Amino acid sequence: MTLRVLAYATVGLAPVEGYLAAVNPHLGKVAPALLIAVWLVVRVRQRQLPRPTPLHAVLALLAVMVAATAAIHSPGAFTAEYTLRWLPFLVITAVLADVACREVPIRGLLLAMATGATAAGIGALYSLIIGGEARAGGPQTDPNDLAYFLVAAIPLLFLAGKASRQRVAAAIGGAVLVAGAMATFSRGGALGLTAAVGWLAARRVLPWRALAATASVVALLGLATLQFAGPQIERAVQEKSFIAASNVDTRELRWQAAARMVAEEPVWGVGPGGFREAYAAESHNAEIDEQTPVAHNMYLEVAAELGLPGFTLFASVIGIAGVASERTIRLRALSSPGRTEAIAIQASLLAVLVASTFLSEQYYLPLWSLAALAVAAEIRARREDRERSSADACSARDQ
Questions:
Q1: In contact, 70 and 271? CB cutoff 8 Å
Q2: Of 82, 107, 220, 224, most Cβ neighbours within 10 A?
Q3: What is the pLDDT of residues 151-204, one digit of tens each?
Q4: Is the CA virtual torsion 343, 347, 353, 359 positive or negative?
Q5: Residue 73 exposure: Cα atoms within 13 Å on the Cβ side
């Protein structure tokens, strides 16, 4: 029971970590730290090792690679800080994969992620309508990061039960998430949402009634927002239009700088956090007002900082998650809830990957938790398939 609560808290509180940090800078780290500690105690008492999977092997190798490149670039101004950001995500991914295939229901974890993101969506709308912000930030300082959390959670709402109350709650939650994502004016978030919805439609798990209900609620929210916060919306649109062209130019500069770093240091990279430190020199001070930015492209930034071997391991985590979710779909019957879970994980992961083309999101939990749950879902599906085959064999022998 304790593992379940802590696992739910870990994934559910991640979208609102900014609110927790406002209370105490370390408050958001309490649930993950307790989850890891309790998991260790439980496994020692049970005398069980984590179930070995390719994901665990890749995570271990990636941890070694992060530590190695950090040691090589240890004098870096951001090396220690970013190394300490990398390693907890690798550990929590391994822990979530283990508890999700044993003690904690995958559906519960996915709904906890959606619930936390919905709370963040409410915060986004509040910050825009009541707080008067030009772009909704809510619990995240960067609206783009908030959009990342929101669009990643939208496919998970399709896991709500068939009861009318659950469907209504899912439609309202979906409307809040979509409206909150729109309020961030994040183009990367919009592309991620488009990709997720397209994937759900292609896999035929997107009920048109649910889509219509969500669209209706979003429209009502939009009309209410225009009624009560028309000037703020107009100002936000004007500001976003003004900076849109500048954003394109600056991101192109950063991507080019990251690509040059990869070419110059293809094996060991520039170290964790090295992009921020080396950007000014590599770009020849192309941005006078921003000397230590992020790359705004997860793939280029990881390749620049960890080198091509490190990037290969990072990409392998994503690849393993994709393959595992597809295997789960093939193992599950068409009407099985587990099949819907796997497709929802795929759609959320696709939203994350598309949005991360324009954002540096390797230091946020959705990518890692979705990879863990994809692997855990396959393990559960294979175990249930073996149990079913064994039961059928016993039944045949009895007959």
A1: yes
A2: 82
A3: 999 988 877 656 667 777 877 888 889 888 888 888 888 899 889 988 888 887
A4: negative
A5: 29
Return the amino acid letter for 295: A
Residue pair 18/116 in contact (Cβ under 8 Å)? The answer is no
DSSP per-residue codes, 211-278: HHHHHHHHHHHHHHHHHHHHHHHHHHHHHHHHHHHHHHHHHHHHHHHHHHHHHHSTTTTT-TTHHHHH
Could you give the 3-state DSSP secondary structure of residue 366?
A: helix
Q: Which of 96-100, 123-127, 137-141 has the highest mean pLDDT?
A: 96-100
Sequence-distant (6+) residues with CB within 8 A of 144 are 184, 186, 188, 189, 358, 359
> How many other CB atoms are there within 10 angstroms of residue 31's CB atom?
22
Task: Assign 3-state DSSP to the chain and report helix, strand, coil percentages, each to 5.
Answer: 80, 0, 20
**Residue 210 burial by Cβ neighbours in a 10 Å radius (0-12, 13-18, 19+):** middle
Domain ranges of the chain: 2-398
8 Å CB contact between 314 and 374: no
User: How far are the Cα atoms of 107, 156, 159, 170, 227 from residue 165, in angstroms, in the given order?
Assistant: 18, 17, 13, 9, 28
